[in-house]
Amino acid sequence: VKIIKAFIPEKVKFFIENILIEELNYFQKKYPIKIELISNERLIIPEYKIELFNKSKKIINIIKNVSEVLETKKIQIKEKKDLKKLKKDTKKSKKNTKPRTLWVRRKKKSN
């Protein structure tokens, strides 16, 4: 691992930059790694995402503790919209065809 990108909440980044910056610099000098702290507005305090890159900036591993609730809700909303579009499309196609006759009333025979 040569590059570490840490996606963290803004408050955590602020704390690390103000209090723990000396420790970060020490580890960057001791080991040949680069640590990047990136704030993400959508993350709340216990959540994080860490991406580990090699020399050629290819992702080796991703470590994350992110609740997928918001993302799954967005996916579900998109799926519902897609289903509605499909239903509308099928309704339009049914309007173009002739309706089927389900039953016919027969006239009574007169004597």
Mind explaining what this structure looks like?
There is one protein chain. The protein is of the alpha+beta class and about 110 residues long. It has 3 helices and 4 strands. Strands 2-1-3-4 form a 4-stranded mixed sheet. It is rod-shaped and about 110 Å long.
Any key phrases for this structure?
111 residues; alpha+beta; 3 helices; 23% strand
Chain-wise SSE layout:
Elements: E1 3-8, H1 10-19, H2 21-30, E2 34-39, E3 48-53, E4 59-65, H3 69-96
Parallel strand pairs: 1-2
Antiparallel strand pairs: 1-3, 3-4
**Could you tell me the radius of gyration in angstroms?**
30 Å
Sheet with the most strands? 4 strands, mixed
Helix proportion of residues, in percent? 40-55%
- N-end to C-end Cα span: 99 Å
- The helix-and-strand class reads alpha+beta
User: How many strands appear in the DSSP assignment?
Assistant: 4
Shape call? rod-shaped
Provide the low-confidence segments as ranges.
Answer: none
Q: What does the average pLDDT come to?
A: 80
Topology pattern, helix = H, strand = E: EHHEEEH
- In percent, how much strand structure appears in the residues? 15-25%
What's a quick, concise take on this entry?
This protein is α+β, with helices and mostly antiparallel strands. The chain has helices spanning 10-19, 21-30, 69-96, and strands spanning 3-8, 34-39, 48-53, 59-65. It contains three helices and four strands.
